[in-house]
Amino acid sequence: MPDLTLTGLAKSFGANTVLHDLDLHVEDGELFTLLGPSGCGKSTTLWSIAGLHSPDSGRIAFGDRVVFDGARVDVPPEKRNCGVVFQSYAVWPHLTVLDNVAYPLKLRKVPRRDRARRVEEVLELVELGGLEDRYPHELSGGQQQRVALARALAHPPDLLLLDEPFSNLDAKLRERARDWLRILQQRIGVTTVFVTHDQDEALSMSDRIMVMDGGRVRQVGSPEEIYHEPADEFVADFIGTVNVLGAHVPAGADRSQVWVEGLGQPLAVSPAAPAEGDVRLAIRPERIVVHPSGAPAATPNAVTVKVRSQAFLGDHYRYVVALGDHELVVRTLSRIDHGTELTVELPPEAIRTYAAQA
Ligand SMILES: Nc1ncnc2c1ncn2[C@@H]1O[C@H](COP(=O)(O)OP(=O)(O)OP(=O)(O)O)[C@@H](O)[C@H]1O
Ligand SMILES: [Mg+2]
User: Fold this and answer.
1) Ligand nearest 49 Cα, by number?
2) pLDDT average, residue stretch 260-284
3) What is the CATH number of the domain that holds 84?
4) Distance between CA 29 and CA 210 in Å, rounded?
């Protein structure tokens, strides 16, 4: 299977620039996810790869094969050999499962006997054997998505491109579909670009994730890197739950200590803050240690805080506490019988600091 390289891809719709010189590289056999808020350019990127949009400039290559290069090369979609699954119009309602899946093979004039064999093979692969004669309305949502996937795989694609393929499934089905797709993708080893705005989906399925915002790349990394080492406040805030507070480093002071407004003690941070002056401090709730009966002496960043509210969420408890003039979300696995005060510890290495945006 080829790898995929996008170089300097740019696309505008009228005055609206949707992709700004986008670069990305997807390794052979990788499941690579484009993640970002609505309108950030995920689908535009995917459609450009499939050949359904012509970018204004830049280059797209599948392995050594250049499929787009500015005005010079623009290989039409049917010659790019991508298997594509979209969220909407996933399957044709007037065709049976068999005819849906056989369609791309018919289009490529694959002889009838080979066609039948391949359809059977691919329906087995997506675990839909025996449902050949059903129409889409006689299938569940999850089964319909699998028909769409079978169709995308029928003529073995060089690249599999999936645009929010599970978004119309309910939560339980979606979780099953993720696991199932991940196993299938690894088995057939097809290089895959997956689009979603769902962070859980991205974290649980991907080899690597690219976080996009406003047509630009914010960060590319493994799910763990993106979650634990977010490159900036946007990424930290977009993935998972995070406390973000304004803080300050006095001029000329040691940048391994920051001051939070209203808090009478500095907080040690590791690594040190990137700049003097105003900074932003980020810490995930699950990294904050709660000491119901006070922290041991010399615990760094132990702070006594007032509890503002408490909620039970099934697998954990969530507390909102006051840290100086700010609120902080804290989690515990078991209930804490406390008064209105708690000691929390913010381990310096669990704190990330970012330069405040001007
Ligand atoms: N055919 C088009 N004509 C004009 N503007 C478009 C067109 N397609 C997309 N856009 C605009 O380009 C921007 C990016 O759209 P895109 O569909 O790539 O976003 P997305 O990241 O896939 O969002 P979502 O998560 O909502 O699907 C949006 O501002 C959108 O309005
Ligand atoms: Mg989209």
Assistant:
1) 1
2) 94
3) 3.40.50.300
4) 16
Q: What is the pLDDT of residues 296-343, one digit of tens each?
A: 989 999 999 999 999 999 999 999 999 999 999 999 998 887 678 889
From residue 21, alpha-carbon distances to 159, 217, 333, 346 in Å are 22, 9, 45, 39
Last residue of a domain, one of 204, 235, 266: 235
Q: Is 41 in the pocket of ligand 1 (CB under 6 A)?
A: yes
How many angstroms separate the Cα of 235 from the Cα of each of 126, 225, 260, 278, 320?
A: 34, 11, 22, 19, 22
24 Cβ contact partners less than 8 Å away, ≥ 6 residues apart: 4, 5, 6, 32, 45, 210, 217, 220
Tell me, using a 6 A CB cutoff, whether residue 43 lines ligand 1: yes
The pLDDT tens digits of the residues spanning 80-102 come to 999 999 876 578 899 999 999 99
**Nearest atom in ligand 1 to 34's CA:** 21
Note the pTM of the prediction, 2 decimals: 0.90
Question: 357 CB under 6 A from ligand 1?
Answer: no
Q: Is 39 in the pocket of ligand 1 (CB under 6 A)?
A: yes
Whose CA is closest to atom 18 on ligand 1? 41
Residues 52 and 132 both lie in one domain: yes
Whether residue 88 has its Cβ less than 6 Å from ligand 1: no
Residue range 231-271, pLDDT digits in tens: 999 999 999 899 999 999 999 999 999 999 999 999 999 99
**Mutation choice for ligand 1 from 44, 46, 195, CB with most ligand atoms inside 8 A:** 44
Query: Are 101 and 152 in the same domain?
Result: yes
Closest Cα to atom 6, ligand 1: which residue? Answer: 13
* Predicted pLDDT of residue 225: 96
For ion ligand 2, residues whose CB falls within 5 Å: 43
Residues 272 and 212 in one domain: no
Ligand 1 atom showing the smallest separation from residue 164 Cα: 27
Q: List the CATH number of the domain containing 348.
A: 2.40.50.100
